[in-house]
Amino acid sequence: MILSSPERLAFQQDPCLPGHPDPYPIYATLREENPVQWCEGPGLWVVLGHPECQAHMRDDRCSRQDHLDKLIQRFGDERIFQRQKGDLPFMDDKVHGRVRHHVMAAFRSIDLEALDQFCIEFLRQRLEGVQTGEWIDLMPLLANPLPVVVTGHLMGVPGEQQGQVLEHVGGFVRARGLTQTEATASGGDAAMDVYRRFFVPLLQERRRQPGDDVLSRLIGTPQDAIELSDEQLLLIVSSNFYSASIYTVPLLISNAALQLAREPALLQRLKQEPSLLNSCVEELLRFDPPAQALNVSAVRETIELGSCRIPAGDSVTALVGAANRDPRVFVEPNRFLLDRQPNPHLSFAPGVHQCLGLHLARLELRAVLRAWVERFERLEVDEARSKRLVGDRFRGFERLMIRFS
Ligand code: HEM
Question: Has residue 66 got a pLDDT over 70?
Fold first, then answer.
């Protein structure tokens, strides 16, 4: 594909091409030109190739804290960026390892089988009243509420109390996008204030009265090797549990619905071979991932990546949405292959900051697919009446009009 100047300019301004119906041919052309590209708009290096992304994700010369320092210098130290220094995706080295170990133990304590049953029951209720042949917005029907009730269930927080948190998640997430402005920084500050008002009393209450929930496990016991302050816990809960799931999972479900609508044979094949559900989940994650790019790092020393020399202090991100279609790794990368094996997609960032919620995300998507496969013959999408999210490095829908038959 030959890129037009507006396409090159759009990529230069925002490499995730927010809201674009199909960024993948554009990524492919640029990746062929050079798997590592400089992007003038956000002022950072963008890695589009699979091997180059893998190398970047495992490179301990890349520092999240150093990139935050650049933002703190630019926006001042009373902003969200200063607070993000204590958040897992922005930590480096040993400090990151210690906190990650503790948070991972809380994730491991989750009974995935029981959670699966919880999702099945929730989806049964949501789909009960749905009439076949009726156009309906998938997002409020089940894509948005599913991760909210799952997170609330794990944390022991009633769903109806979470309204304000949900309203601000976009502001929180955008303050960790590739491009930062005064507006995104202010949105992040406002979200942090709301989160603080909501979560700190909850944390204090749970400290007094621990329960059998993930929040109590995160607070821990005096026997734990680590003791976290309310400030640290606030970040873990609001970022690593809430925002990480309630923003990404709905987008993943919406992208999955679109793919099933575009290729009706997929649903039919899943009906005949339900054992393909797991590989379908992986292929959906590869084909159109909700998180197109990773959080940004800055390099501590000059490094070589692909054929590029990245000078010390420069910032870098991995565009995993592009890497997932690299023909050096995937045969027929632009085809959706239900039984693709192996499928080494990078959508959960395998490396130092690998997603800790990957089991939950897979479980939720699988539960949704299973519910559709069991109940319906066909799923259609009305793209003209739907609305794509224009949300920096994330991809999916805000409104997705669907119809089951
Ligand atoms: C479709 C769903 C999801 C996708 C595509 C996804 C993707 C990612 C990616 C790409 C990263 C790496 C971020 C970076 O290094 O820049 C990440 C990190 C993380 N994710 Fe997820 N995620 C999803 C769902 C979840 C869920 C449901 C949770 C928790 C409930 C979660 C918790 C985390 C945590 C805690 C990290 C930080 C790990 C660290 O820095 O050590 N994610 N996720």
Answer: yes
Q: Cα of 8 to ligand 1 centre, how many Å?
A: 29
Local confidence band at 222 (pLDDT 50, 70, 90 cut-offs): confident
Q: Which amino acid is at 401?
A: M
Pocket of ligand 1 (CB under 6 A): 88-89, 100, 240-241, 244-245, 248-249, 252, 289-291, 294-295, 347-349, 353, 355-357, 360-361
* Residue range 356-383, pLDDT digits in tens: 999 999 999 999 999 999 999 999 999 9
**CATH (domain of 390):** 1.10.630.10
Across 29-54, average pLDDT = 97
Distance 265 CA to ligand 1 centre (A): 31
Candidate of 54, 148, 355, 356 to mutate for ligand 1, largest count of ligand atoms within 8 Å of Cβ: 355
Q: How many domains are there within the chain?
A: 1
Cα 216 to middle of ligand 1, angstroms: 21
Higher pLDDT, 32 or 157: 32
- Note down the domain range covering 69: 5-404
Q: What is the pLDDT of residue 163?
A: 72
